[in-house]
């Protein structure tokens, strides 16, 4: 080994620019038994020098590296085994699930990841404000509440609250675990919840790079996929700083699942000997099993993310080429089944999720295995190949019928979950609307979420399915099935648009690099290359000239330019406005004041920000359902007395948005709140912003006095709230004996329309006592 290593080291000392080419050549040598000059990423002169120095030697009809381990060691690979004299041993890099990344590719990848991070942390000043960590949106405060509850109770790491065991238990465990690693304080919990989406974005981007490079054998496609992912609005806002929802973690598990599954499938033309196959499959099988189990316990809609695997199994059984073994899919089936077993174990041992949630990955694994075995049997018997998908589908239906007979409750729960999914579609919750909903605009919706990248991705995704079937490329077929199924789900509900983003990035990258080749700015992706020998090597990155780089950058605007513009706009819709933040801090200050003695702390508001206000107020941001069910009815009501009875013992504050009342609405609670509560007896404005007002729900002081019989009496209060002039009026009618009674919500001086003034003490408003005019 020392001679080859010394020769390689000497060559690199003379010509250091060859490092990337040699790194690529190592990959070619590892993936193929022998290769030709066309496979080498060097010109004929350099190739001759490699042969002359003994680094490359002839083998049969082709060439091989004289000692791959020696070349790797000379390249500075820490995993190369210097004790391996003949290069026959499998190095650590051959055992672990990794892809070689050259030094140049590493710099490109690092720069691309910086773009990913930059487009997710630009909201930093709006998240970290004056000692507060202000999360984006509404739902992240739910997970912040759960983490806080576990920390305060001292619960074990796996002892998640009962209300989350059938939702996203693993997300809470991850957040609590990270919080405890950082000291376990409330501040640590806040920072973990805020920063975890950005970390998830980086992990997903790296997985996206590896997936795109594995599929295309082209690092240019991998880097482009990361850049496209960086500017996809739907991925950017779901992984933005402060948006600590479950979707960011779902994207991690999904990207790892697909990457591992693709690596377990055979690549076209890649020869793997029987004695080393298990070493290649085992690490990726472990990654797949772990990510599948994690996916099942991270989201209660995870079963739908296993549907593409079933679709793939059926399509694959009909797409086998002559001489191709259907049993090549068994490692994938085994890893999926193992992941399903782990998911079921989590349910049995920890009580997480329901059988309907944890069974699908196990069933998917068994289905992929059954499809492979059926295809093998069909091929052995010699019947037409179309019978394989028919038999596979029939066996699945039969298996479901058996399960329905043995355990009807399982089927009943499955039907219930399906009905809930369908029933939610099109509801008032934005996540349940279609990608093509008129809420966004029939054709503007996809642009709103993906920019123009989807226009590039759709034809490339169709090509992936086609080439997967027509050319028997299982890796492309699996990825195409994922993209197709998730696109169908996103058309039904946009909550799946984030999951689709990974595949939009990969397919758009393939289409973009192909587009560059059409306009003569780059070589085509290897799968589109005219030379078959190109298609299984890894195309390395080259630094273009300044003018070519500029033209490539301009061309990238076609696929990513609109997304780069839409990303900050879309993310900013989730950022808490200054009004919302200041309203929340006012509630926080009031409830934490020493003179606050009321047990009632609930903040009644529009549901889309309800968790924000209640987290700041009391730390109880568990649910927004009361607000969602009642707030709009409250604003539209013309019977304030009924709502006073309902809210007196429930709500401490009402946050009112002046934009929430339709123009022309009169006689309602909402219209009265636009006039500082005039006409209402129990709502006192205590803070006012540009578009929001915080009202304290008060008993109100009862003012009594005398006037002419049946006279109309109006009490008017002039004051200020947050520097804004306030005019509050209450009108009543005197009784036949001339007495009148009216309840007012503000302390201070009132002028009486019949003459004179009356001063209402603050204590009277808070206690509901009587004041004589």
What does this structure look like?
With 773 residues, the protein is an alpha+beta fold. The protein folds into 3 domains: 2-95, no CATH class; 105-569, no CATH class; 577-662, no CATH class. Strand 7 (683-688) and strand 8 (692-697) form a beta hairpin. Helix 9 (169-181) packs across helix 10, helix 10 crosses helix 23 and helix 16 packs antiparallel against helix 17. The chain is elongated and about 120 Å long. Mean pLDDT is 84; it is low at 81-100, 269-276 and 530-537.
Record keyword descriptors for this entry.
single chain, 773 residues, alpha+beta, 4-stranded antiparallel beta sheet, elongated, Dolichyl-diphosphooligosaccharide--protein glycosyltransferase, transferase, STT3_N, membrane
| First-to-last CA distance | 105 Å
Structural class: alpha+beta
Unreliable runs = 81-100, 269-276, 530-537
Largest sheet properties: 4 strands, mixed
Looking at the chains present, what oligomeric state does this protein adopt? single chain
Proportion of β residues? Answer: 5-15%
Number of strands: 15
Shape: elongated
Q: Gyration radius, to the nearest Å?
A: 33 Å
Spatial arrangement of strands, main beta sheet: 5-6-8-7
Give helix % range.
55-70%
Compute the average pLDDT: 84
Counting structural domains, the number is: 3
